[in-house]
Design goal:
By secondary structure, the chain is of the alpha/beta class. Helix 1 crosses helix 9, helix 2 crosses helix 3 and helix 4 runs parallel beside helix 5. It has nine helices and seven strands. The structure holds adenosine monophosphate.
Length: 233
């Protein structure tokens, strides 16, 4: 099963992705996390991508695809992966289709986590991140059990530079302009489920699980497991 959690920055994709990988036992491929660990490790690739992340711009497609290609070559991804924050351009989606096809795989399901644009900046602006494991929190929407400490590993939480309001607004602009068209790419393949991303985290989680369940059982009117589009049932 290869799935993508698709949605604007601040839609809660990362939080839901963390839950889904534990639930389904498949690895998460988050390009944002991959880039941040390269930056932290001080690698040449990290140096190359740092400015893009700091400014809230997209890393060029060839660099992004190289990082994903390397990750997909690792054996733990053979049984499927959950993409988070990737693909973010139509060119990335097209190349990912080719990469998966070469491995005899395909994108099975794209879950579009919908959150109204006006809610995104406030969600991102309050966000706190664990610098060790990448898990995110929010003082009101998703507070950690102990103030400013990660529930998983106890590390002190920080605010990501690119979650500051000005950069957050820029990232939303980039999303609307460059990333939203990716959805049309996957709608043509009949693999998209639209999920309401507002309300409590647990509710969003249940909606996502229901969408996955419907999709796996072919009850969502989208492409059947044999790849044939069922049309408007
Ligand atoms: P994220 O953690 O997914 O919000 O990503 C943080 C930043 O990493 C983005 O603002 C981009 O600068 C960069 N990034 C992450 N994923 C991609 C991608 N698929 N394509 C280009 N840039 C990306």
């Amino acid at each position: 099963m290869n799935l993508t959690l698709f949605g604007p920055p601040g839609s809660g994709k990362g939080t839901q992705a963390g839950f889904l990988v534990r639930h389904f036992g498949i690895p998460q491929v988050s390009t944002g996390d991959l880039f941040r660990s390269e930056i932290e490790a001080g690698t040449p690739l990290g140096e190359q991508v740092r400015t893009y992340l700091d400014n809230g711009d997209l890393v060029p497609d060839d660099t992004t695809l190289e990082v994903v290609g390397r990750r997909l070559a690792e054996p733990d991804t053979a049984g499927g992966v959950l993409f988070d924050g990737f693909p973010r351009t139509v060119a990335q989606a097209t190349e990912l289709d080719r990469m998966l096809a070469r491995m005899g795989r395909r994108m099975d399901h794209v879950i579009f986590v919908q959150v109204p644009t006006e809610m995104l900046v406030s969600r991102m602006a309050g966000r706190l991140t664990c610098p060790r494991c990448g898990r995110t929190y929010h003082p009101e929407l998703a507070p950690p059990r102990r103030a400013n400490r990660c529930d998983v590993d106890g590390t002190g939480l920080v605010m990501r530079e690119d979650d500051r309001p000005e950069t957050a607004r820029r990232r939303i602009g980039v999303y609307l302009e460059q990333t939203l068209p990716v959805l049309a790419h996957y709608r043509q393949q009949h693999v998209v489920s639209d999920v309401d991303g507002t309300g409590p985290i647990e509710d969003v989680r249940s909606r996502i699980l229901r969408a996955i369940d419907r999709r796996r059982n072919g009850r969502d009117g989208s492409r059947r497991p044999d790849g044939v589009a069922e049309g408007g049932s």
